[in-house]
Amino acid sequence: xxxxxxxxxxxxxxxxxxxxxxxxxxxxxxxxxxxxxxxxxxxxxxxxxxxxxxxxxxxxxxxxxxxxxxxxxxxxxxxxxxxxxxxxxxxxxxxxxxxxxxxxxxxxxxxxxxxxxxxxxxxxxxxxxxxxxxxxxxxxxxxxxxxxxxxxxxxxxxxxxxxxxxxxxxxxxxxxxxxxxxxxxxxxxxxxxxxxxxxxxxxxxxxxxxxxxxxxxxxxxxxxxxxxxxxxxxxxxxxxxxxxxxxxxxxxxxxxxxxxxxxxxxxxxxxxxxxxxxxxxxxxxxxxxxxxxxxxxxxxxxxxxxxxxxxxxxxxxxxxxxxxxxxxxxxxxxxxxxxxxxxxxxxxxxxxxxxxxxxxxxxxxxxxxxxxxxxxxxxxxxxxxxxxxxxxxxxxxxxxxxxxxxxxxxxxxxxxxxxxxxxxxxxxxxxxx
Length: 433
Fold this sequence. Notes:
This is Transcriptional regulator. With 433 residues, this protein is an all-beta fold. It contains one helix and 37 strands. β21 (254-259) and β22 (264-268) form a beta hairpin.
């Protein structure tokens, strides 16, 4: 892939920041998801979710606090409903928070006041943790919102729990459809690990990406009818092992899929028909090692598809001093699978934010290189690749974008071989206009 030379590379996004208090300092290795951010209420609110469950809504312009609540678990995901009609009851905006913790709670809060409207504990379905460590806790991994044919908004969520008994490893997961009042419309339970959800623009089809499949469920992508939860079709990269899909993204009747199984990107048509596939960070021999990187994120819009890759790993060992030539990169393709542009993101991207033709990548550390210049929020134009960068002292671990407003979470980091703490726990808010 050819690099894109970009004269706008150092243009600032004119961020302002507000401290979020204390958090355990991150180290060289990546930590679990500890923070979340959302731009809500038509761009008027910036809502942050913190590691201790604190959820705070701030005015997007002044950054003054509008309300603060305590979520039952670690607040690791946020989505928003702008207002809909449910059972004849007109509702205003709602902020929905996903948790990782004892209950795996999903809770909805009034966007204006912070009053809790409803709560649902996913642990009632997927079970409680069998071991007192973060990785075993019930975890709501994805939230997705959309509007049905009658104009009513719906919330979709995916929750999972992991357990291990000796050499036996198991996942328990449930995908949910909620009405705005918190009532459950349908559920879909499996023994695989979901990683991503996406709803088509018509609100008719919900794509569920499964990352780890080691039980009876043995397919990486399931497309469900959004109204009923019935399965419409399945697709899988057809690779060996339990690694399958990293992300999914609708664009009209097509779905972009990043594959952890073969480290490629796919564009699928109706029924899972393969339109094209591209090599992203496939297994590559460098001297005496075979290296690869996972394609972690996919985003499709208006006939273009972007994929973002992650860390380098070696087939023989997870430790390597070398780097895959396509690690930590964003690459965009046209409707026929031809490369439009590519660029580096440099650090690990926990979650890609997108709005129309904009991509926002919160870039954390490159743990093999440990270069503080990788700590940044990077913006890309999906069509041209034009970019801007806001460098942070700490690592960027979450981002959201709505209209011209972008928000990002910074967490402090101390590399194991330096002994110096860089950055702070803060939310940054800026404008892309």
